[in-house]
Amino acid sequence: MTAACGLSPRRIRKNNDSTISSIIVFVLNVPEKITTSRLILRRPLLSDADAVFEFGRDQEVTLYMDWPAHTSVQAAKEYLRDCVPRWDTAQEYDWMIALRDTGQVIGGISIRVRGHSADFGYILNRDFWGRGFATEAANAVVNWVFGIGSIYRVWATCDTENLASVRVLEKVGLTREGILRCWAIRPNISPKPRDAYVYSKVRCSDDVHPPESRN
């Protein structure tokens, strides 16, 4: 089980209009913590670096990511530091996935809200694959974002060979729309862009596609 679009350690571009960004964050009322039956999704802390490095360096976990596997804990720290401005400027909202009973961080999930749509991705420590944790976390985030009245479409992508993520996205209720040719470079596989599936879930097809006018 690996990421759909994934958490990225890349640095962000600063938004020149911080006032507008602050207003967007306020209007969305993004929860800093989401609780499910077995998990707590919470905002990242710098103290999560060791846990992030543990799954961020795993070649199997990061195989289909669009960023290179971490080679030092410093890469994890840089990602965690960047989570703060990304959240504050409404570029991306990141949560750590932690076990509810112990607080252990086992992965992460992120979402980007753009106009009437939002896209998400996740990553999960390999020791916790096959237990439904990715599906549970994704369901929580998708349910939250569909609570925003202006959101009509939630989508995600995954490499066409990433069958574990295919299963997760379908369990969350997303439907495959098609294939995006040469969509993303997976640096842990090849420097060449690879095809990806695109999946989506819409609020109401009648709202998105109004009836055709009749002559």
Radius of gyration from the CA trace? 17 Å
**Count of individual beta strands:** 8
The top level CATH class name: Alpha Beta
Secondary-structure element order, N to C: HEEHHEEEHEHEEH
Given helix and strand content, the structural type is alpha+beta
Query: Which band does the percent of strand residues land in?
Result: 25-35%
* DSSP helical segment count: 6
Largest sheet: number of strands, sense, barrel closure = 8 strands, mixed
What would the principal axes of the Cα set say about the shape? Answer: globular
Helix content: 25-40%
Give a short summary of the structure.
It contains 6 helices and 8 strands.
Secondary-structure topology with pairs:
Blueprint: H1 18-28, E1 33-35, E2 39-42, H2 49-56, H3 73-88, E3 93-99, E4 105-114, E5 117-124, H4 133-145, E6 153-159, H5 163-171, E7 175-185, E8 193-202, H6 205-208
Parallel strand pairs: 5-6
Antiparallel strand pairs: 1-2, 2-3, 3-4, 4-5, 6-8, 7-8
Helix pairs in contact: 2-3
Characterise the protein shown here:
The protein has a single domain, classed as Gcn5-related N-acetyltransferase (GNAT) (Aminopeptidase), CATH 3.40.630.30. Helices cover 28% and strands 28% of the residues. The protein contains six helices and eight strands. The N and C termini lie far apart (51 Å). The N terminus and C terminus are likely disordered.
Keywords:
single chain; disordered C terminus; 6 helices; 8-stranded mixed sheet; alpha+beta; 8 strands; globular; 215 residues; disordered N terminus; Aminopeptidase; 28% strand
